[in-house]
Design goal:
disordered C terminus; elongated; alpha+beta; 319 residues; single chain
C-alpha cells in the first residue's frame, strides 16, 4: 500500500507550495473566541507561515506533497505556555483524504505539544464540522458544548442585594472557585482542575482593552462578566452560579451602562441554562453551536502527606 503525503512542522522548503496555495481562501475549521462574528474563519496560509518563521508565538504543521498543499494547522499559547489552542485547521480538499489529513496534522500538533511539556491542547469547532471525527482519532475529546447568542443590549435596572465592581488580580482565587461551582465535574476534569490550569486555559486575547465585572451577594462572588469592543462589535463572556439570574441581569445592565445600546454576541456553555434563559428574556437569539474539544496531556500532581504509623486516618465510611 502506498502511503499518502505525511504532515510535518512547517519548513522553509514548504514556502513555494504555500505561496502557490496562498491565493486560495479556505475555511478555517478551528474557531477561537476572537474569531467569532469577525468573519475570520478563512485563512491566508502564507501569512500564518511567516508568523511562525518569525517566532511570533505560532507553531505550524503542513501536509504537503511537492507543490500541493493538503492541509494546514497552527497553534498558539493560551494564558500560559503550558496550554495551546489550535487556531488554524484547514482541509485543502485533497481527493477524499480530508479526514486522514486532519487527523495527521492534529497528531503532529499533539506530539509537538507533548515534547514541549504542554498540559492541554484545545480545539473548538462547529458541532457539524467535518474535523470533529478526525480530532477524536487524534485523541481529542468533547469537553464543553457551547452555543452562540446574538442580540442587542438594553437598559436593565440593578437587582436588590447585588453589588457590581471591577474584578482585580486579587480576585483570581475567587474567580477560579466560581468557575468550579459553575462547570460540570466532567468538564473540569478535562479542562481545569487547579488554579494554575484554569489561568493557563483562560482565552483572553479577544478581551484585550475591555473590562471584567464581578457580581457579589453579601460579599460573595456569584457571577462575572468579561467584555470587549473590537471591529465594531461587542463581545462578552459570562460565568455564573446556577440560579444567579438576578446577578446576570445586573451584570448585563452594568455593561450596557458602559457601552450603550449596541449589538452584542456571546458564547455560552450549554450547561449554563440559567444564563441562556436570561439572554432569551432580553431578546437575544441562539445561533450556531460549537464544541470545545480537549486533549489533556498531563494530569495534576496529587500531593500526598505521610502519616506516622499508628495514627488513625478517617476513612469517611460508616462504622
Amino acid at each position: 500500500m502506498t502511503l499518502g503525503p505525511q504532515s510535518h512542522a512547517a519548513r522553509p522548503t514548504d514556502l513555494v507550495a504555500l505561496v502557490t496555495f496562498d491565493n486560495e481562501v479556505r475555511e478555517n475549521q478551528a474557531v477561537t473566541l476572537e474569531s467569532l462574528g469577525a468573519d475570520e474563519h478563512r485563512s491566508r496560509p502564507l501569512n500564518v507561515a511567516l508568523a511562525q518563521w518569525l517566532h511570533l508565538g505560532r507553531r505550524m504543521w503542513v501536509n504537503v506533497d511537492g507543490r500541493e498543499v493538503h492541509g494546514i494547522a497552527t497553534a498558539r499559547d493560551l494564558g500560559a505556555r503550558s496550554a495551546w489552542v489550535i487556531d488554524t485547521l484547514i482541509d485543502a480538499g485533497s481527493a477524499g483524504h480530508g479526514d486522514e489529513v486532519i487527523a495527521d496534522l492534529l497528531a503532529q500538533a499533539v506530539e509537538a505539544a507533548r515534547r514541549a511539556g504542554v498540559t492541554h491542547l484545545l480545539l473548538r469547532t462547529a458541532t457539524d464540522a467535518s474535523a470533529r471525527e478526525p480530532a477524536m482519532q487524534a485523541g481529542f475529546r468533547p469537553a464543553l458544548p457551547e452555543r452562540l447568542w446574538t442580540g442587542s443590549l438594553s437598559a436593565l435596572p440593578p437587582a436588590p442585594g447585588v453589588t457590581i465592581r471591577d474584578a482585580t488580580s486579587a480576585d483570581q482565587q475567587a474567580l477560579f472557585q466560581l468557575y468550579s461551582r459553575s462547570a460540570p465535574a466532567e468538564a473540569r476534569s478535562m479542562l481545569a482542575m487547579t488554579l494554575d490550569e484554569w489561568q493557563a486555559l483562560r482565552e483572553r486575547r479577544w478581551s484585550r482593552g475591555g473590562g471584567e465585572l464581578l457580581a457579589e451577594v453579601n460579599g460573595r462572588p456569584v457571577a462575572t462578566l468579561t467584555f470587549s469592543e473590537a471591529q465594531g462589535r461587542l463581545q462578552f463572556e459570562l460565568t455564573a452560579e446556577p440560579d444567579a439570574d438576578a446577578a446576570v441581569r445586573t451584570l448585563l445592565g452594568a455593561m450596557q451602562e458602559n457601552v450603550g445600546e449596541t449589538e452584542a454576541l456571546t458564547l455560552v456553555p450549554r450547561h449554563a441554562g440559567s444564563i441562556e434563559q436570561v439572554l432569551l428574556a432580553q431578546g437575544f437569539q441562539p445561533d450556531r453551536e460549537y464544541v470545545l474539544q480537549a486533549h489533556r496531556l498531563r494530569q495534576p500532581v496529587k500531593l500526598e502527606s505521610k502519616v506516622p504509623v499508628g495514627v488513625p486516618v478517617p476513612s469517611g465510611g460508616g462504622a
